[in-house]
Amino acid sequence: MLNQQEINYFEKVKTPFYFYDMGLLQKSLFAIKDAADLYNFHLHYAVKANANERILRTIKGFGLGADCVSGNEIQTALNNGFSPHQIVFAGVGKTDDEIELAINSNIFSINCESVQELEVINSIAKKLNKRVRIALRINPNVDALTHSKITTGLKFNKFGISLIDVKFIIENINSYENLFIEGLHFHIGSQITILDVYKKLCKVVNDTFSYFTSQGVRIKHINLGGGLGINYQNPESQIPNFLSYFEIFKDNLNVPENVDLHFEPGRSIVGQCGYLISKILYSKTEGNNNTLIIDAGFTELLRPALYDANHKIVNLSSRNKTEIYDIAGPICETSDYFGRAIELPLSKRGDLIGIYSTGAYGEVMASQYNLRSLVSKYYSDEIPLLPIAGKFLFV
């Protein structure tokens, strides 16, 4: 959590800005790496969660690969030192240029999402005189019990290959002469907090793997996606229980030991290490309704407007008696609210506001709508750590 030294520093910095607790990021990486290593699981960080270069370099330093969903993400991962042999490329709408970049970069796997895409990749690989490693992304029709806008594994979602198309691919597998179809990929959604849904996924994975095996197709690796959620209401529980998460797959998957298992964590690694720091511009009262207008908007954190998401919001400047407030941004849109009926200390113009758990899908989704400027980033290991009365004070 934020300490008083950091808060004192924030008072001197132009708001709004993102702040990253690099120590917490490293603790999260130690935790997930230790848990995955128990079972020899392979990790590919989901770059879409946060593509900040300092974040990426730190993650790469722990030996993780990269899960990319665009050509620019592939190039950014390569530029920040990720080995191409640890990069996977997913996405339902890959362009020809992106596919060509992936092939020429010799990445570990292109995770294919349709029969037509498979044909396009085969054609481009043939033109380049290369053979390409492919994983088929299967739509498992498993409900992740998460927000409707971030579920990806139901049959009416746009992602993945239906089991009917799987049969067609297997029947015509010899026609894909420039492809090594050797992997399976599953991903059912994001911000998943009910872990039992992964048991349902495991059953589909087991059945799908058995079907491919029965048809004489050798599967060398299975990618189980990511989606493990974080606690937005109580960010003090900073690091998810990665061990319990991985144990579900260890206990419920029935595949040979020589089949490599891959995961794509994103939010669970970076979510809690980020903060959006803002200041109160104005306070308004209409009847019994108190509204604080802050200088951050959905241009800096889109999740509340897009997903009705709730983040912990703290007044970092005040410890006075409490009042109930709506917290709104300056954007010329009615949806630009961070929270309603939030209990905060009595708040005034100039107070610092901290919005917690913004390390995932915060900075990476920023925009310049209303012609706003992209904001700065600061890091805990760059702030002079001077003791206050011999100790740190925690908020």
Number of helices: 11
CATH superfamily of the largest domain: Alanine racemase
Proportion in helices: 25-40%
Structural class: alpha/beta
Weakly predicted, low-confidence segments: 143-156, 386-395
Q: Give the percentage of residues in beta strands.
A: 15-25%
Q: Which fold name fills CATH's third level, the topology of the largest domain?
A: TIM Barrel
CATH architecture of the largest domain: Alpha-Beta Barrel
Based on CA atoms alone, the radius of gyration comes out at 23 Å
Categorize the overall geometry.
elongated
Largest sheet: 8 strands, mixed
Distance, first to last CA: 7 Å
Order of helices and strands: HEHEHEHEHEHEHEHEHEHEEHEEEEE
Can you put this structure into words, describing what you see?
- The chain has 395 residues and is an alpha/beta fold.
- The protein folds into 2 domains: 4-16 and 272-382, Beta Barrel (Lyase, Ornithine Decarboxylase, Chain A, domain 1); 22-265, Alanine racemase (TIM Barrel).
- The protein is built from 11 helices and 16 strands.
- It has helices at 4-10, 22-37, 53-61, 71-79, 96-104, 115-127, 163-171, 196-214, 242-252, 267-270, 303-307, and strands at 17-20, 42-46, 65-68, 87-89, 109-112, 132-137, 179-185, 221-223, 260-263, 274-286, 289-294, 313-315, 322-328, 337-345, 352-355, 376-379.
- Strands 1, 10, 11, 12, 13, 14, 15 and 16 form an 8-stranded mixed β-sheet that branches.
- α7 links the parallel β6 and β7.
- The chain starts with a helix and ends in a 16-residue tail after the last strand.
